[in-house]
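Quick one, T. Sequence first:
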Amino acid sequence: MTISQSNEPSATAAEPIPNSVFPYEFESHRHLRIYSLPSSISDGRVRNFLSQQCQVPYKALHFEPSDGVTVSCRVLLDGNEGLNASMSRIVANLPLLASSAKLGTPLADGILFIGNLSKHMTTERLIAMGSPSGTIVRAFMMVSPFTKESEGFGYIEFATKSIAVKGRAALASRVVDDRPIRVDLMKPVSEPFDLKSFRTRTLFIDRLPRGFSDLSLLTSMFVRAGAVQYCNLVRKNGVCRGFAFVDMATCLDAVQARQQVDGALVEKSVIRLSFGHPQKTASSIIHGKEEVERAKARVVRTRSHLQMQQTNFPYGRTNSFYPQQQQQQQ
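Structure tokens:
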């Protein structure tokens, strides 16, 4: 086994990871939610209220049903004046819209994690990929704190969760720059964003040899970069499928591990590393996949058992003895 060496400068464990992103109007876009509105309120009424009475610039409105009697309206702000100034003007005029209306800031629940991207991916291309699905609030690529280049994963925030689900379905099977991208929905995130929470300590390894089984060898490759908390192969019927997941102790360890191990040679196969979902650990992913395999095996065993019963007991266990005798007794 050989490990490719990088010419990039190494970092000490104490070096902080900056919030480095390629911003897409990151600070200027904010979500507000006006809730407890009467269900009869019109789209035009809310638009007039924001633009004319409050003079708050906005990019899009999305109505969401609440309890059947009231609705809420999610407002995607547009402009550079900031969230607080917009909220102050809306609150001051809110009774003019509806006496029951209230104002709040919703959780960002429409964020997609996009992984296994090439180093050539840009925020502009990411936006172009997601825009056919609906309104995009913001998008950004995470960049290396050492090289300032793309780390191969980014995020698209859509205006609503339903649009994000639609976007995930549209992007899930895409191959971009000869790489099958990984797309997953993030759990809701509170505003304002702490970009450090969008970093990950989980690494995905692919292009391992099929049938590879030396887990200790694989683990030792990552120990050189930092502390390894978990490492395991993705198996099917006990055989490696050519994939593995690793949890490093910190995000910084993960960055250094990818820098050092990506492109290493394992049994004549050049492996490839990419960052995993920040809200899912390698252990939870592996255990989830194993549980799916066990569930499939249970279904197969149950079907086989039912087929065997139908073959051996065509009349059921209680009336399987000589149906002609049953007819005579009747």
